[in-house]
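Changelog entry

Holo records now carry the ligand SMILES as an explicit input line rather than a separate metadata file. Below, a converted record for pyridoxal-5'-phosphate, shown in the new format.
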Amino acid sequence: MPSITHLIRPDIADLEPYTPIVPLDVLATRLGLPVEQIVKLDANENPYGPSPQALAALAAEPHYAIYPDPEHAALRAALSNYTGQPVERIVCGAGADEIIDLLLRLLLQPGDTVIDCPPTFGMYAFDTAVCGGRAIEVPRRTDFSLDLDMIEQVATTTSARAIFLASPNNPSGHLTPRAEIERLLQLPLLVVVDEAYIEFADYAGQDYGVSGLVGQYANLAVLRTFSKWAGLAGLRIGYGLLPENLAEHIWKIKQPYNVNLAAQVAAQASLADRDYLRTNIGKIIAERERMSAALHALPFLHVYASHANFLLCRVTDGDAARIKQTLEQQGVLVRYYRKAGLRDCIRVSIGTPQQNDTLLKALQDIDRGR
Ligand SMILES: *Cc1c(COP(=O)(O)O)cnc(C)c1O
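Structure line, unchanged by the conversion:
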């Protein structure tokens, strides 16, 4: 059969293939364990699952045969109440991931650049490449704070179109102070602050979350999601808080039915049941603090302070890849990165107290390959 690869965009043909995650049931079969025995602490999912009200609303929804509202008006009204931002500044997507993709499609022409600050969430560089752009890396410092001077230098010498900042950052858990973001907002590019984990951050002093600044700065966009705090990762629902004159153009390129009806129904019910979900957030934060101390007490781990629902641990004595593999054999899944700067680290999501104890026990007994 003749090949048609010459018809494919050459920049896409040259991209590295994406390594997909193995579905849980496939992995369970491979390990010879029942699915219920797998302790899944590798993807920052919510161990308590969705709100029971969200599950009830999903079961009761009568209109799955009808296309969903392309403007997700009811959900945006509820999000306006939740975030304090007007509906004109809210756009929903199939996860925050879709908003990242939409923003880059709006901004990038082939060869345009974006500033990325690794180690961080991989989708910024991934979507930049898919859109024909190029990510310029300004690595974080050893404590995972931003190198503001270097970012300013790169921004003023390269005509980068945007910078992506996760705060709290994944995988480090580091929170960027509001003053630093306000400094970056002086630059001539779009500043995208990804607040996927902001509901887990302790910022009583109000110095951190920046959703309230959207609209005050023409170049600030904030990303949020229901995947982590509301336990809806499998339904794919996130949103962007965007200045009106950016949102206006996103509406032109968004697929009309990007957010399915089940996701809209579950997200609205979650917002209505947020006191319940906040109780779970409280449990996760308490467990994060307990686990941070317990992991730190192990002689071979250094644990970084985290404002999210996971902890990044540096293996100071032993082999991180081997620890990940050994845990997996026992049905305990954690995240390992084959990436510069993270090769000696594992990231563990915060589970239920029982799941966390299973992880601790496994780590206490582990042969760490010294
Ligand atoms: C998990 C995660 C997301 C993805 O959110 P979805 O709404 O599930 O697409 C976005 N940003 C960061 C930093 C994340 O860790």
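Spot-checked after migration. The first strand starts at residue 39 and ends at 40. Residues 44, 95-97, 121, 166, 170, 194, 196, 225, 227, 233, 238 surround pyridoxal-5'-phosphate (CB under 6 Å).
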